[in-house]
Sequence to fold (904 residues):
Amino acid sequence: MEFIKRYLPIAGLLGIVIGVQLLTSATDTAYYLTQLTMAAYYSLLIIGLCVLMGYAGQISLGHAGFFAIGGYLSAALTSNDFSAYRETAVMRFMDTAGLLLHRQSLYGEPLLNIQPWPACIIAVVVAIIIAFLLGIPVLKLKGHYLAMATLGFGIIIFRVALAAEFFGEADGISEVPPFQLFPGVSVTGDFSDRVQNYYIAWGLLLLGLVLLLNLIHSRVGRALRSIHGSEEASEAIGVNTARYKLYTFVISAAFAAIAGSFLTHYNGGIGPSEAGVMKSVRYVAIVAVGGMANLWGVLIMGILLNFMSLRGMFGTYDDAVFGVILILIMLFAPQGILSLRIRNIFRTKRNDT
Amino acid sequence: MLELSAVHKYFGGLHAVNNVGFKVAPGTIKAVIGPNGAGKTTLFNLIAGGLEPSSGTITFKGRPIQGLKPHRVASLGMARTFQNIKLFHGMTALENVMLGCHIRSRSGFLAGMFNLPRTWKEEKDIRARSMALLELLDIAGYADVEATSLAFGQQRAVEMARALAMEPDLLLLDEPAAGLNIYETAEIARLIERTREMGITVLLVEHDMSLVMDISDEIVVLSFGEKIAEDVPDEIQRNPDVIKIYLGEDEEAAV
Amino acid sequence: MELSLFLQYLFAGITYGIIYAIVAIGFNIIYNTTGIINFAQGEFLMLGGMISISLLHFMPLPAAITVAVVITMLVGALIEIVFIRWIENPSVLRMIVITIGISIIIREAALHIWGESVRALPYFIGSAVTSVSILGTKISPQVLIVIGVCSVVVVFLSFFFKFTSIGREMRACAANRRAATLCGINVKNMVTFSFMLSAGIGALAGAVMSPITYSQYDNGTGLAIKGFTVAIMGGLGNSPGAVAAGLMLGIIEAFSISVLPLAFQDAVAIAILLIILFIRPHGLFGSSEAARLKEF
Fold:
């Protein structure tokens, strides 16, 4: 019974995903799929952030940083030339393991890149390690301090992306090669592979959604919600609150990095704006609009707002729209406009005295 | 079961707990009483792990526990309730009790995300056990009601059920009768005795003298952070120091 | 390092440091009366600079700056009245998100009014190449003006809080809101006033620094995070601490240029912020006893 209650909406969503694709091909509007694919990747990050903010109750203004770590590392490792390091032990090992790609430049010079699969794994693992190291001290902080610390982290990543030659400075990295998942299935922005990529993105998003839905309905999810309710009482029943917050932070960072890696291969490049503070704020805004502790609400708003933004519906007011949304939601509907359950996470708890 | 020896706690210049030591024998009900500001709650937090003693040792089941994080103490088999009931808002009574089963279950993040068969089964067990506890405390009818919207007495019962779900060896009760009327207090008294019959040792801090005198096997009296008496209830009632410090204050308050 | 180069770095450090201190004091003023960190604090400096530049077409420089400060103060008051005043018992997270939203709206409005171009007020005395010689080092007089004006603001504020009745009432709100209300102080008006004051000093600093640092629609965020770093270093709510910490950060940043690429200058400040948050969240000069009462 509960099984059905949890997975039936997923099946419904899958139906919609297929339906939309069929509809676009029938009406010759397949160009919508491009933005829907990108929106799906952004939403993958956003549902991860939703579990961190809505369920574990920790704000992060630095998630664009994790997205950028995933995207930039994938891009740099698969596009930059490593021939200069050909003779180092690491490279020789990777070569024998078949993890390197030998190519030739336009002028016939040998180029050495890392294959997309290992590059993606390295990117995600690096994001996880950074999230771990950052999370241990940062998650001890609350409120303003946590917000500022994560914001600071985001700005550092932005600055590094902007200043490092390895990451292409202000131009970012372009001409990132396709990411072949299996023979015949690649993450690429090629028009001919548009339908395939739509399904890859949505498949990944649905997988992420199932994992997170399982998580919040599990023993761990219950413990996360208890931390949000009262950290003191949560400790008293034996929840290791520090560890639970940390693991949630790491999981959400991993979701962000995976989204960054895939979207970068899809777009064929990444620029510093993806690491910008405004992006992080935008993700927080969408989680707030979706209702914080409401995965479905956040997913729906994530797809909707990202799609509208990517279609250029907000024109030059793109960032302003998200600012206004943020304020209106916080002023008038802090439980999100789709709030189905009344779970006011903003209620100040004053019964600790 | 629990042993405190020469425990001190300073807050800046304030000597909140001064050289307190006592033992709680397995299977007994022990009470700590004292006037306001005697250091009862501080002592409680020292035992439950919210605070670290400035000096002295606290052992639980033969293990030193001073300075451990609360969740570590909890996982060693000590459960507690709070003076001003801390239920998790936005969660049903049943979910609150299910949270009590947290330390008696194991599924982690990955098991939860992939919803493995054993996770599924564990979840069913937890639900059944929690339901049984709600029935035991006669509040099964409120299982699906949001816990914080229940009446005060029922909230106390839910909190007790949550603590019992931890299957503790020692149960710490922080003023369990606070805010309850005499019927509810009698109910709580019965519940505490039933808890002991289940083989759980109880240590409570309490203001309500009738409750303490009725159910406790032994009583420790604190005043200004110091232990001034430790005895069976009848002797405590006759102890002149206790009457002077504790009951005397009550009379003044009554005037 | 030779003396003249050393002095160059030192003056640059002091100039930026005292600006950061002003931003930090702006944070402190609002924090003390409300417990809110106003993430839009940096936007006040941007507005001060941008508005004075625009007004310069119609009036002389001192008038332009004065009017810009007044307008920014009105913006500050407006923010408080429209977004903050009527929220009952706001949670920290909600206020963070609201003030972030406000900062975005101000920034985007500035983008649409002034565009992306970088502007600057002219140098108050002479031009970009005018200089005075101090211990053999050539320093622009504008640097001395910035340092002078900001120092006057700091001194003025400390007198204001100590000796005027409105300043004392604001401190009473900071110490205990309820007690202040019971003493007949209109706490809500004090909060509005704290936003105005905070906006006003921000705008003044933004205007005097404009010839050196330039003004652009989006330079508020960077200033805000530096200012916050300084506020934390000095101990949140502690304004003398903020001045000391501001000078410290400014000087560290200035000298970091000699060892690190310019692009990483911001990263230095943020790394300091993170380190301070991890090891001494109550600040370098705050007492840990008092910090126990705050929530980190």
Q: What stands out?
A: Chain C has one domain: 3-291.
